[in-house]
Amino acid sequence: MRRRLPRFFRDPRPAAAALLTIALGGFCSGGRAAEPAANEDPQQFVQFVEDFAGMCVARQAKEILVKNTHPTRTLRVWLDRYHMGTGTGDRSRSDLRPGAEPEPLGCSRSSDGPQEWRLVRAVFVD
Questions:
Q1: 21 domain residue, yes or no
Q2: How much is the pLDDT for 59?
Q3: Is residue 35, in this structure, part of any structural domain at all?
Q4: Domain containing 81 — which CATH number?
Q5: What percent of the chain has pLDDT over 90?
Q6: Alpha carbons 119 and 43: distance in angstroms, whole number
Q7: Distance (Å, rounded) from C-alpha 30 to C-alpha 84?
Q8: How many CB atoms lie under 10 A from the CB of residue 56?
């Protein structure tokens, strides 16, 4: 008594077509990988900028701003504020769009002493 093989084994064309579709799927998606490139660390695209703002200049300080330098991707950043070298417990979260104006954080000096912001985490939103 001879058993009949399943259709998959008799005609390999459907299986070959499925493998080809899977293999070419990355090329057909516009060449963009689903995950960011291994060398594309979101933190390298976060930049702190200083500017002269009236309220800060009055305190002999500069305004601190944060911006996204990536040309196409939006960043979500978490920042901690430090006052006179001590963490204040203030953590902010911001979404920074590519090409947008820098987001103001505050003055580099308060009435009591210097303050700064430190990057805790950065991730790509899209």
A1: no
A2: 86
A3: no
A4: 2.60.40
A5: 62
A6: 8
A7: 49
A8: 20
Residue indicated by tokens 């963490």: 87
Distances (CA, A) of 67 to 8, 57, 74, 80: 55, 21, 10, 15
pTM score: 0.67
Give first-to-last CA distance, the chain, whole Å.
Answer: 59
Q: What are phi and psi of 32, to 5 degrees?
A: -95, 125
DSSP per-residue letters across 71-123:
SS--EEEEEEEEETTEEEEEEEEEEE-TTPPPEEEEESB-SSSBEEEEEEEEE
Q: How far apart are CA 18 and CA 23, in angstroms?
A: 9
What's the pLDDT score for residue 6?
55
Q: What is the C-alpha to C-alpha distance for residues 67 and 98, in angstroms, rounded to an integer?
A: 8
Is the separation of the CB atoms in 123 and 93 below 8 Å?
no
Domain membership flag for residue 34: no
Q: Domain containing 47: what range?
A: 42-124
- Residue 15, domain member (yes or no): no
* Angstrom distance (rounded) from CA 66 to CA 79: 10
